[in-house]
Amino acid sequence: MAGTIPAAAPFFGAEEREAVDRVLRSGMVAQGPEVAAFEQEFAQIVAGRTSVAVNSGTSGLHLALIAMGIGPGDEVIVPSFSFAATANVVALVGATPVFVDVEPDHFCIDPAAVEAAITPRTAAIMPVHLYGHPADMVRLGEIAERHGLAIIEDACQAHAAALHGTPVGAFGKTAVFSLYPTKNMTSGEGGMVVTDDPEIARKLRLLRNQGMEKRYENEVVGFNMRMTDLHAAIGRVQLGRLAGWTEQRRANAAYLDAGIAGSGIVTPAVAAGATHVYHQYTVRVSDEAFPGGRDAFAARLTERGVGSGVYYPVPIHRLPSFGLTLDLPETERAAREVLSLPVHPSLSEGDLKTVVEAVVGQ
Ligand SMILES: *Cc1c(COP(=O)(O)O)cnc(C)c1O
């Protein structure tokens, strides 16, 4: 429909075009100085942790698990309410994803459910900072410490989110950010793995590059998961825009909060001490709140020219790729009720007004 407000709107300006052109003119486009500079600069948003660039968030999670020594016989506790990549990577390294429920307020992994799922085989916990809201890293950190488990943060949706002043990415042994176009910043495709462990950082660099640090001296069996300098050049420009964009997302969310309050549609809750960066602005639409429930509500938004998205309509454990039957009631309820409204920084005040009016039915 002409004039539809899109649910996501990646932005590329003159600076991104110039950066790509600079790399093209250099004649060297594969991993090189732009990637190295991007890694140095990215460290600034993760409390100075070492950052290793790869070709996607999924690659980053995959390499992080291998670098942490997780493989066959190990269990990794994951939320079922996430993007499939969260669990796919666990299966791809030969480990077993153990799916647990989320808490109902922020849709992040439920620490009590994590603790109940721990077995002698548990190697790690993989919390997802879903929609840009930090998972409860305080309780998860205590649980991990008590049981001697590693934490790998899936921070793919949460660039610059924080909890009690600590940025996400600085809690786990490793953390991974996605740089896919619809994320809060992009390099085209790409990912960044961050860690405070120099040995893991070295393994990550080896694994992304055929197992080599020095050419033709392959130390381990590795992949080609390198980021290109073209992508890094775009990512560097977008990193410079991130703080302003995050502020705009938070301001847009505040506008939506105020406009939607009292309508019966449940606006996103923010935990005490949390900085939500609103990768998605996700509301809950129960059957009681809107006749016909979430899907009928989404249809009304479409009629009024407001794009929306459902992340995620099917919990990972029930996808054909895993095909499990589990009792995860909050995950099922979320999959039925959530809807994400436009919140991206390209929205005008008029767009925001249109979104609110469509939501409250004015
Ligand atoms: C986007 C995303 C990924 C994967 O990132 P890609 O860059 O698309 O490979 C993993 N986990 C979550 C939660 C994501 O949102």
UniProtKB/TrEMBL annotation:
Keyword check for Kinase: no
Single annotated GO MF: transaminase activity
SUPFAM superfamilies: PLP-dependent transferases
Cofactor(s) annotated in UniProt: pyridoxal 5'-phosphate
UniProtKB keywords: Aminotransferase, Pyridoxal phosphate, Transferase
Entry's EC annotation: 2.6.1.-
Pfam families found in the cross-reference section: DegT_DnrJ_EryC1
Sequence similarity: Belongs to the DegT/DnrJ/EryC1 family. L-glutamine:2-deoxy-scyllo-inosose/scyllo-inosose aminotransferase subfamily.
PANTHER family: DTDP-4-AMINO-4,6-DIDEOXYGALACTOSE TRANSAMINASE, TRANSAMINASE
Protein name, per record: DegT/DnrJ/EryC1/StrS family aminotransferase
Species of origin: Streptodolium elevatio
Lineage of the organism: Bacteria, Bacillati, Actinomycetota, Actinomycetes, Kitasatosporales
